[in-house]
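#struct-pred

JT: dropping the chains for the assembly here, can someone run the whole complex?
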Amino acid sequence: MSARQSGGAIRVLMRRALNEITRVPGAAIPGVLAPSIFFLGLTSVFGSLTLLPGFDTQSYQSFLIPVSLMQGAAFTGAATGVNLARDIEQGWFDRLLASPAPRPVLLAGLVLSASFRALIPATFLLIVAFAIGAEWPGFGGLALALLIVMGMAIVAATWGTSLAMRFKSQSAAPLMQAGMFLAVLLTTAYAPLELLQGWLQEIARINPVTQVIEAARQGFIGEDVTWAGTWPGLLALAGLAVLFTWMALRAMRRMTA
Amino acid sequence: MSGRLAANARVVAALGARSVRQTLRRPQLAAPLIIFPTLLLAIQTGGAGGAVDLPGFPEVNGFLDFMLAGAMVQSCLLAGNSGGIALALDIEMGFTDRLFAAPVSRYSVVLGRLAGTTVLGAFTAVWFIAIGLISGATIEEGVLGAIWIIALVAATALAFGSIGAAIALRTNSASVVQGLFPLVFVILFLSSAFFPANLMLEPAASVAEYNPLSFIVEGLREPILSSFDGEDELLALGSVLALMAFGLWMCALALKGRVRRGA
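RK: done, full complex below.
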């Protein structure tokens, strides 16, 4: 298969996944609603935490919005895994595996569609956040945050698809969602690293998603967006994406072995 | 008369036991009761634990002590939602119709489901007390306080279970009941379950002042943080009884509606 043909196959698969948004608009609601409720709820409940010495900003909305953006991306990516599990159960994915398209092309179509779909909850969340007082991160900060949202969706989608191909059942959905939910919350989600308590501080320190959130947070909390603050997050995203892509391709090979 | 009462009591007990077994066997029903609130308790305690240093925060031994009541109430709300989903699934599969065709009271069939939810509520209370004590929390009111907490959590689970059951009986759809899941968090965030109402931001702070869930949370929190003072406990009990009466009344209306429709 030539590079042009591969590109065409990826486009068709992305188009199929994105069709769900126009044909079943309701399917996008949970991915938008859950992070929005958590964002509004947590800012109302824990908003006073910014009074603690050591907080980088006086606006908890600004501090929390990157976390909610990552949650939205993670839920959207995990949903790709659930949709793939449904395709496997219904036999549609077997037909794809029987096609001459290389396996990485099949995977790329799935995960790239997730990266674009993740922009829907991100847009909604950003509108809500700015409406209730989150700081404007500047065009650079906003662009970086959206790039990281797309990257996080790819990570979550590769994680979800690897589990879908491993379990071949939609009943693995809670595992796909819970894995991402934990990855995002076991970070500096609620407070800066120095203010986290004991065990959570240790986990957040080694959790690569902490770097991802810190990179996305830069512009929102009034810091300059710098390369030094950005590259650890991008490296973490790349590392996670490579790891989960390897797991997904391995699971795909096992399906046809 | 007493024979009929005994027969209905046996139905309630049998269906209650089935409901508990069903929940424990299906991870998608059991996980929201225990795993999700426990994870959130751990993460919020670790993440927002510094809040105890805020001016205006009540005197506590630790943030975990403060958060335990919120986790229990969260579990009750999710138990009510899970119970409603399970009942709706029974209706969708025709199991409830077969029970309704049997010579037992329809109310016993619904009460059986609610008995199961009550037992699960008591179980989650024991779970969170155990988790709390192991992790260093203390219950200032001692054994009597722990017994009060278990009883109030069980009654709260029954109250929310009755609301979940009423929605299931009214809609006959598991997906509709499942769709109410986000609402659980809206209600929780608009109460003092996770933070003192006086330190929350407006308008959530004002809503939390009058949210019945806040009264229940405070009634559970009081014996953990200090000792019984009577007022908080009475308000909690009153709120639970009011919610329970509302839920059971809605269930009765839904059952009458089914009879009218011939369902």
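JT: nice. Chain A touches chain B at residues 30, 33-34, 37-38, 40-49, 51-52, 171, 174, 178, 182, 185-186, 189-191, 195-201 (CB under 8 Å). The radius of gyration of chain A is 19 Å.
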